[in-house]
Amino acid sequence: MRKPLVVGNWKMNGLRATNRPLLDSVREGVEAGVAAEVAVCPPFVYLADAASALQGSAVSWGAQNLSQHEAGAYTGEVAPSMLRDLGCRFVIVGHSERRTLYGETDSLVAEKVIAAQGAELTPILCVGESLEEREQDVTEQVVKRQLDAVLERIGVSALSKAVIAYEPIWAIGTGRTATPEQAQEVHGLIRSHVAAQSSSVAEELLILYGGSVKGNNATQLLSMPDIDGGLIGGASLNAEEFLTICQAAG
Ligand SMILES: O=C[C@H](O)COP(=O)(O)O
């Protein structure tokens, strides 16, 4: 039985003055009655603040990226062990913004998944096609390629300690959401692709949807059989909106 998970990806947003009230509201709202697991991923520099606001609560926290290296001369990078040290449970890996804006390749993403798991962090591996790829009808090939790059390195059993997020790039921050049927089709495809290697891993695997999920479309998306929660960008910056999504998932 898969327990739904909703993760807020704050991206490069927030300041201390507004973070604390947002975290407090999310914590209170979740503890007042949300059945889904909930986590937030603020920017690195606010992780310690998130840890202090959420310690002992029902809300977990995580990072948006990590280095594939353990330690050393890598100016500006953040090691997996540092995230663990700050109590992170999750780390987003291979978000499309990292892939397209910072040149992260399938191979680097696989290394980061390995590094995350090595530090006992649960990687949230993002996959998804661009608008051009969807129009060329190669969504399935793109998503399978992105998944296989990781599966070939970690093996299917290690996927039991990971979460997948399907995020069609054309739906991110655009207000253009995939229909529940479009999203379900790709989620089903991801689960069957994993099931071809291990049906038990596939059955337990959490597959989140991300891309313009809001309070008013969450119920339809999150009620699809292979959509196990959401990776929420813009709407996670507003406590009321985010909590509405969390309730829809639970
Ligand atoms: O990580 C989150 C996704 O990129 C979705 O962002 P969005 O909800 O602002 O479209």
**Bound molecule kinds, no repeats:** glyceraldehyde-3-phosphate
What's the end-to-end separation, in Å?
13 Å
Query: Can you say what the CATH homologous superfamily of the domain at 62-227 is?
Result: Aldolase class I
Radius of gyration: 17 Å
Helix/strand order:
EHEHEHEHHEHHEHHEHEH
Strand content: 5-15%
Average pLDDT figure: 97
User: What proportion of the residues is helical, as a percent range?
Assistant: 40-55%
Structural class category: alpha/beta
Give the second-level CATH assignment, the architecture of the domain at 62-227: Alpha-Beta Barrel
InterPro entries: Aldolase_TIM, TIM_sf, TrioseP_Isoase_bac/euk, Triosephosphate_isomerase, Triosephosphate_isomerase_AS
Subunit structure: Homodimer.
GO molecular function: triose-phosphate isomerase activity
Function: Involved in the gluconeogenesis. Catalyzes stereospecifically the conversion of dihydroxyacetone phosphate (DHAP) to D-glyceraldehyde-3-phosphate (G3P).
What's the layout of helices and strands?
Elements (H helix, E strand, L loop, with lengths): L4 E5 L6 H16 L5 E5 L5 H8 L4 E5 L16 H6 L4 E4 L2 H6 L4 H13 L3 E6 L3 H5 L3 H16 L8 E4 L13 H16 L3 H6 L2 E3 L8 H5 L6 E4 L6 H11 L1
Helix pairs in contact: 1-2, 1-11, 5-7, 7-8
The protein binds glyceraldehyde-3-phosphate (G3H).
Catalytic activity: D-glyceraldehyde 3-phosphate = dihydroxyacetone phosphate
Subcellular location: Cytoplasm
GO molecular function, one term: triose-phosphate isomerase activity
